[in-house]
Write a structure and sequence with these properties.
4 helices; mainly alpha
């Protein structure tokens, strides 16, 4: 089939459907499952190293109850961020690959558009997870908000007299 001069409304032959299915399954394996397995492996290794480092710190020092609670909180936070990142990747990409394996004419157009656009959402959500998951960034945002609430009615010095 000529990809440029073909009728898009023509029903594809069984050979074309079989070729497209092979292509879609290959893409699912190479571009979804392989990266997902790689992320699970790497995140598991990172988590194991974080746990090992936390255990070393606990063995070398005798933290009080509050310090031990803080260490467990840090470990729990790492697990939650990794789990959310894997969940976001899976939720954003899996519907697209499932969509590719099904007959599109049987689905409403809205479902198709949502599945296609979901895969782009992961590019927006991953940086948000990294940035908003950091305590120092959240503290800076909170400090900025309280500063604006307190002094927001005043004009900044560089704006005085500028019109």
């Amino acid at each position: 089939m000529d990809p440029v001069h073909h009728d898009v409304y023509q029903i594809p032959s069984p050979d074309v459907i079989r070729s497209e299915n092979i292509y879609d399954i290959t893409c699912l394996l190479v571009f979804f499952l392989a990266p997902l397995l790689c992320m699970v492996f790497v995140y598991a290794r990172i988590l194991a190293e974080v746990s090992r480092q936390i255990d070393l710190v606990q063995k070398q020092s005798t933290p009080g109850w509050e310090e031990a609670k803080e260490i467990k909180y840090t470990e729990k936070k790492v697990v939650i961020i990794f789990a959310v990142m894997l969940l976001v990747y899976t939720v954003c990409w899996l519907p697209y690959f499932i969509l590719r394996l099904n007959r599109l004419e049987e689905l409403p157009p809205l479902v198709i558009y949502i599945c296609i656009w979901l895969r782009f959402l992961t590019s927006f959500l991953n940086p948000c997870l990294y940035v908003f998951g950091k305590r120092d960034f959240r503290a800076a945002l909170k400090w900025r908000k309280t500063r604006n609430d307190r002094y927001g009615h005043l004009l900044p010095l560089d704006r005085v007299g500028a019109e």
